[in-house]
Amino acid sequence: MSAAATYARLAAGDAARRVAFSVAKRRAVLARLAEGIRAREAEIMAALAADLGKPEVEVRISEIIPVLSEIRHSARHLQRWARPRRVMPTLAMLGTRGTIRPEPKGTVLIIAPWNYPFCLALGPLVSALAAGNAAVIKPSELAPATSALIAALVKDTLPEDLVAVVEGGVETSTELLAQPFDHIFFTGSPAVGRVVMAAAAKTLASVTLELGGKSPVILGAGADVKKAARMLAWGKFQNAGQTCIAPDHVFVPRAMEPAFTAALRAEIARMYGADPLASPSYARLVGARHFARLKGMLDEALSKGATLVAGGAAQEAARYLAPTVLTGVPGETALMREEIFGPVLPVIAYDDLEAVLAQIEAGEKPLALYLFARDRAVIARITAATTSGALGINVTLAHFLHLNLPFGGIGTSGLGAAHGRWGFAAFSHAKPVLENRFAVLDPLMPPYTTFSARLAQALQKLVG
Ligand code: NAD
Q1: What is the pLDDT of residues 248-282, one digit of tens each?
Q2: Distance 338 CA to ligand 1 centre (A)
Q3: Architecture, CATH, for domain 3-211+410-431
């Protein structure tokens, strides 16, 4: 079925769904989705192993658990999120009844990336369904096994007039983007984010853009080097660095650099052994193009004088790049200009924290910024002085799992937010309903008399 026909089929049900898709029914659909996921656990593991060599623990923690907990959280809070809320009348509105009524936007489009291909397609779907919408999902063609799995899962567990999966690449995505969806939820690169927003401008669809970019890390002077190295090795090398909120590069006080790089080396060995290629805990790169890009970036940095502190080994046939740490990476390299999105971590020694803050400020607004520090004054200074999609203090990645926090970027790292009630809000229209109960406006209608003039004056005085 073409993109246009799929859209039209779902959108035809918008009006009826607005009335009939009650909170109880939404909960039932979400429960069916959860059941379908639980029943297909082995298939999910196999698909992610095929696409990304993802270890089972990582599949659970970063693909299955986020979706199941989004379902559980939404089911638990949905009644409250969806309830129409009465608001107090303002002075000039005395005698009216105002209500904010969350209603579904209609039929929405979800475009997903390849790096967490299961979670980033189905997580937004949970919010879209919780808010009462129909949805079309376009999974990433670069994770084909997971794309097929999502299509089968949706077909088998969800009503076909509610959710459709359209598989394919750029062409399919382009066709879908030409349809007048009521909201587009896009997760992917800032470059394609611009394409999505331009397409949305044609239909005036609202958008949520979950994008990427370079997420810097700052080690403060008093940071616990070993704890920081452990947390950073975990955050950086999980899924072989192909994580939108992975630490991109680390600024470390010059005097601490040797101890920090030694601690990183030790953590890498502890997590992945002497030969990470043989480790069942280490994922693979998504494909040959991505491998070539990363290998090229690494070779360029080394040829321009960077020092290899750990890793560096690469095997194209195995889509393998070792957990790699570099120091002394020159600023004019692709590693320092582009989002790395792979297992290469530049460590940059600094002398002056203010210069680091100025350098971050001069770049694009990051999706995440990580700070490792114990000194409250340093934490307060950096919290106030920087802007980013999220700030992690002595932790990496975990804010993604906290459903009471909004998840999203700012500027080139994204627009809008996902998760929990923010995800629900992204897919809802907060419709104001104003009911006139005592005809207060009557005396203010023409013909204007001395009385209406006095009344208008009195009203103006009342509001200031
Ligand atoms: P991508 O932008 O290349 O692709 C994302 C989706 O867009 C895919 O489904 C793809 O088919 C589609 N697409 C690609 N080119 C298109 C075009 N010209 N027109 C229309 N659709 C197109 O991103 P990716 O390579 O899959 O993912 C990597 C990027 O995503 C990184 O920048 C990463 O930081 C970001 N990301 C962000 C988040 C987040 O939550 N903020 C999560 C994961 C990944």
Answers
A1: 999 999 999 999 999 999 999 999 999 999 999 99
A2: 15
A3: 3-Layer(aba) Sandwich (3.40)
